[in-house]
Amino acid sequence: NMLGTLCTLITALTYVDAAKVLTQTPAVHTVSTGQEVVLNCNIQRPESYYVSWYKQVPGKTQYVLKFYHSESSPSFGTGFSSNRFNSKASSNIDYQFIIKRAEAGDTAVYYSSSLKLHHNLIY
């Protein structure tokens, strides 16, 4: 059809733990194949945190990338590269996960987590 295959991306619900808050938007994002996808994560606290992104489909979770706002490019997990994926930060608390050209296989739930530079995982 004219729209091509649709790709639905679902972000995890907000996680709250002792004032450490990650908020992902939009909750559900549906695009046509070939379109760019941008998922947002606000980490609330302007400290030195990486933001990592994970892709989850039934029975499998994959680490996609991690990014720190002062870096020029993200580091990628196995099977993911800058050919189709990217991450940016519009501030030190607002991060974006970008799929440059969506494919049907990108349909999944996407989670973000925040990791302090000293490797103290806070979710």
Record field, number of beta strands: 11
> What is the level 1 CATH name?
Mainly Beta
Coarse morphology: globular
Structural category: mainly beta
Tell me the number of structural domains.
1
Share of helix, binned:
under 10%
Q: C-alpha Rg, in Å?
A: 14 Å
Q: How is the biggest beta sheet arranged? A: 6 strands, mixed
CATH architecture descriptor text: Sandwich
Average of per-residue pLDDT values: 82
Distance between the termini: 40 Å
CATH superfamily: Immunoglobulins
Q: Briefly note the CATH topology name.
A: Immunoglobulin-like
Record the strand order, biggest sheet. Answer: 4-1-11-6-7-8
Strand portion, in percent? Answer: over 45%
Unreliable stretches covering 5 or more consecutive residues: 13-17
Pfam families: V-set
Protein name: Immunoglobulin V-set domain-containing protein
Subcellular location: Membrane
Keywords: Immunoglobulin domain, Membrane, Receptor, Signal, Transmembrane, Transmembrane helix
